[in-house]
Amino acid sequence: MSSGRLSRHGLRIAAAACALAALAGCTARGGRPAAPLYAVAARSDHGMVASGSEEATRAGVAVLEQGGNAVDAAVAAAFALGVADPGGSGLGGLTYMLIAPADGIPVAIDGSTPAPLAADPAALRAIRDSGAYYGHAAASVPTTPATLAHALARYGTLPLSAVLEPAIEIAEQGYRLSSSNIAWTTSYLDEIRASQSLRFIVLADGASPGRPGDRLCRPELRQTLLRLAREGVETFYGGSMAAEIAADMARNGGFVRQVDLATYRPRELQPLRSSYRGAEVVTFPSPGGGPEVVAALNILQTFPTTVLGEPSLQRLQLLIESARLAHADHARHILGSGAAAGFGVDYLSERHARERAALITPGRALPESEVQEAAGTSMLGEHTTHLSVIDAEGTVVSLTQTLCNQFGAKVVTPGLGFPYNCCLEFLDFENAASPFHLRPRGIYPTGMAPTIVRSADRVTVLGGAGSDRIPPSLVAVISNLIDRGMELREAVVEPRVLWNSASNPPRVCIEIAEPISRRDADTLRSFGFEHQFRLAYPPEGDANIGFFGGVNAVAYDGRSGVFSGVADPRREGFALGPRALAEAADGP
User: Fold this and answer.
1) Before 435, cis peptide (omega within 30)?
2) Of 39, 188, 505, 524, which is least packed with CB atoms within 10 Å of its CB?
3) CA pair distance 269, 326, nearest whole angstrom
């Protein structure tokens, strides 16, 4: 992403000060940083769901309680997220799913959004050059309905109409606005107000973002979901709804046509499999950000676990440098220059990890010449949402969705009630040699990285939100679990130090909270990490808590037989297990 997009969107979230203080905990005394964020660890005997929305999590849990498996629950929760978390997901977006059946082989379902056949680079370049609002022209082919329906048909047990019921109910009865909902809406308020088709969908009165606890209904989206329940997703891709979408696009300068919808099919891919200190890591392959997760973990495990087991400046530096090197290598591979420079497919090998790790010198930031970061490697998915599910039989799903920007293109087809993605907005309209160049039916990389970590007695399902910060945030949580022996809640809420490659210039992002101090940040600057974004707790004013990600995770501990879940408090997520089943198991 360009620096202009980052400054205009990524750093302007304005959360209410009272809500931020409630999330952050108490103010520290004596100059020490405040306590870290707080989250409740949910526990259950019969499965777990964690997502960025309470309503969506409860939708997934309800399906588990009705006898559905993890795929059924994940699909139900994903549709519900499109209702209750409309800024980062919905029918107009794209979805990645990583499924690991309890007794089967893991599979990655790639819902990448292809560029429409009629997409015109010259027209899009003219919009960009003029600084005008993209609108319909930014939308690529919506893939979420097809991806979810494919997963349900292949790996679920319930019909589409059944898993849509919770989302339909939420659309009818409304969802409660959280401080996080309001913060994201406020950060895009001018653009939302300017969109006559979106403003009355996400703004209760068409003008204001509302207050925490307000309830917002989605009547038009409810009718759309009812149509999908009756007619199947076929109507979205080849029936009357497809005709409505295409006609609206044609009227308003968009490029999506009926042929794009009719010919779309999600792909099944082989997940990327690796290991970290004896634990198996299964993650989403390219075009996802899973290779960055693997590359960073490969570098970290060349160092003794004792070095990463305790909070220290050396640990912080290793997290930063492993993320820098992993991103650079993955980006070079994407750009196609890797083979010529010795960074081919072996950039995920142990040998390559040892070579890259050998460059790291304690107390000195790597110079750019040694990192060899390639230019022009921004990826889709600036605003995302993630959910994780595990059922009582051990089937797990890790699922990440995006509209490529908060509320996507900020446009809605009249009567359908969902915003479209804006993925074309982030592409290259000039350089035909770039892998990001707009081309018919082209698909493009993202940082989204649904991941599963399995050891002999534990399975952890996780993923996150946060664009280019997704891979480093997942690496940090995995290291917390394995190197530091943390429980899931601790691992997720622990303050983060992340590498922000999409910034111009790239920088280190630091949460100033125990055990990370301002002095630590100053020392990292003296090492050569000059460019920093700091967030001190408790945050004040328009502090950007959500910038540090949204890792929603669930786990099963084979020793205790307990399922646990935690949703990232940075984005006010919610975790819950099937209570009715848990109570039945506990007995009277």
Assistant:
1) no
2) 505
3) 22
Domain count, the chain: 1
CB 559 within 8 A of CB 569: no
The answer to whether residue 361 sits within a structural domain is no
pTM: 0.91
Q: Is 524 exposed, middle or buried (CB count within 10 Å of its CB: 0-12, 13-18, 19+)?
A: buried
CB atoms within 10 A of CB 405: 28
Phi, psi (5° rounding) for residue 441?
Answer: 60, 15
Confirm whether 178 is domain-assigned. yes
pLDDT digits (tens, 9 = 90+) for 394-450: 999 999 999 999 999 999 999 999 999 999 998 988 888 787 889 999 998 999 999
CA–CA dist 410, 584 (Å, integer): 46
Please, are residues 235 and 227 in contact by the beta-carbon 8 Å criterion?
A: yes
Single-letter code of the amino acid located at 28: A
In a domain, 313, yes or no: no
Return the residue matching tokens 């530091």: 484
Distance from C-alpha of 254 to C-alpha of 263, rounded to nearest angstrom: 18
C-alpha distances in Å from residue 165, one per residue of 75, 175, 223, 243 = 11, 15, 12, 25
pLDDT digits (tens, 9 = 90+) for 113-160: 999 999 999 999 999 999 888 899 999 999 999 999 999 999 999 999
SS3 label, residue 532: strand
CB atoms within 10 A of CB 126: 13
**Domain encompassing residue 216:** 3-269+380-426
Asked whether residue 310 is domain-assigned, the answer is: no
Q: Residue 12's closest CA among 406, 379, 392?
A: 406
